Automatic annotation (TrEMBL):
This is Uncharacterized protein LOC106079673. PANTHER family: B2 BRADYKININ RECEPTOR/ANGIOTENSIN II RECEPTOR, NEUROPEPTIDE RECEPTOR 15. Its main location: membrane. One of its GO terms (molecular function) is G protein-coupled receptor activity. CDD domains: 7tm_classA_rhodopsin-like (cd00637). Residues 141-151 have a biased composition (Basic and acidic residues). The gene is LOC106079673. Residues 137-172 are annotated as: Disordered. Coiled coil: none annotated. InterPro entries: GPCR_Rhodpsn, GPCR_Rhodpsn_7TM. It comes from Biomphalaria glabrata. Residues 1-312 form the G-protein coupled receptors family 1 profile domain. It is a multi-pass membrane protein.
Length: 341
């Protein structure tokens, strides 16, 4: 990619070689990592049943990719050197078909990784568009814990502390949040409804604690909330959590997509200059288009470096919060320094 190297000028030959190697390694690692991130987002949003890449696996893959791409960029330590004018570029003796094949291989890898990124994000966009957006579920209040007894009497379980959500089935109390010590009751009065503790207490004279059970002084009510109604509440809670999880994944995916797009676009000009120099060549005097490509193309990658903080500041609330905390600490430290002086 540094085939032209019109912007780099160094006084030391070793510094030229080292800079070319580091630059080539970082670009190759970056495009591989962006492809890996795109695959992870695709698995997360389009194949929710599949396991996404874990943090431990991400660290291991990043380390392996760094080592592999460092080895892949090792030829830069040999083919680059300062010329008579002090410009870091490919040595004239190295401009052979082998070097052309080497950079053609790197350019092919770049195109393959870019195709993977485009495919994953296009599939994500299609999936998001086709899926029905789940509306936010309003906050639910505490269960009213209403009980309707059946003819002949049935056994239920109850507790003086009504949990956030609760339901019963086959005589067993099921709860969503919290733990409780259940007490078995026998309800023998037919068709009687009870109110929960937060709406007053209607004491039923025909409630008998089951044998061998602990009796609480605060025992107020019995329990069976309508089973289907409580299942609806549980479904709403699960739907709400799923909706929030999808929204969080979409925000992260949008942030990563913008960063990836800026990276690809900012490096397309240097690669275009490389391809033009490898396969077509530049004829002097340079045309206006070739002059712009040669003078500014290799430097457009700087846009990627300076744009990332702005993208994070716009799309990431956690990043903005972190920046505010850092600035607040800087102000505190500055104030203390001024006070000490």
């Amino acid at each position: 990619m540094e085939y032209l190297s019109v912007w780099a000028s160094y006084t030391n030959s070793n510094y030229c070689k080292f800079t070319a190697w580091i630059s080539q390694s970082m670009v190759c690692v970056s495009i591989f990592l962006f492809a890996l991130i795109a695959i992870d987002r695709y698995m997360k949003l389009c194949h929710t049943a599949s396991a996404s890449i874990t943090p431990a696996a991400s660290r291991n893959v990043t380390l392996v990719l760094t080592l592999v791409n460092a080895a892949l960029a090792a030829p830069c330590l040999v083919i680059f050197d300062n010329n008579s004018r002090g410009v870091c570029q490919v040595q004239e003796s190295m401009k052979t078909s082998l070097i052309t094949a080497y950079y053609s291989f790197l350019f092919t890898l770049f195109l393959i990784m870019m195709a993977i990124v485009i495919f994953c994000y296009v599939r994500i966009a299609i999936k998001v568009r086709q899926s029905r957006r789940v509306r936010p579920i309003p906050e639910t209040s505490k269960s009213e814990a209403m009980t309707r007894s059946e003819d002949g009497g049935e056994d239920y379980f109850t507790n003086p502390n009504v949990p956030q959500q609760q339901s019963t089935k086959d005589g067993e109390l099921r709860e969503v949040e919290g733990r409780q010590n259940n007490i078995q009751l026998t309800v023998v009065a037919p068709r009687v409804r009870f109110q929960s503790p937060n709406r007053g207490v209607n004491v039923l004279p025909q409630i008998y604690p089951a044998l061998n059970t602990e009796i609480h002084p605060a025992l107020a009510t019995s329990v069976e909330a309508d089973h289907e109604e409580n299942l609806d509440v549980l479904n709403q809670i699960q739907t709400r959590r799923k909706f929030l999880r999808q929204q969080r994944n979409l925000r992260v995916t949008s942030l990563l997509f913008v960063i990836t797009a800026i990276f690809i676009l900012s490096w397309m000009a240097p690669y275009a200059a490389m391809v033009k120099g490898l396969y077509v060549g530049f004829r002097y005097p340079l045309s206006l288009g070739d002059l712009v490509l040669v003078m500014y193309g290799p430097n457009i990658y700087v846009i990627n470096t300076f744009s990332n903080p702005l993208v994070y500041a716009i799309l990431s609330p956690s990043y903005r919060k972190l920046v505010r905390n850092v600035l607040r600490k800087v102000r505190v430290i500055s104030w203390r320094v001024v006070q000490c002086n």
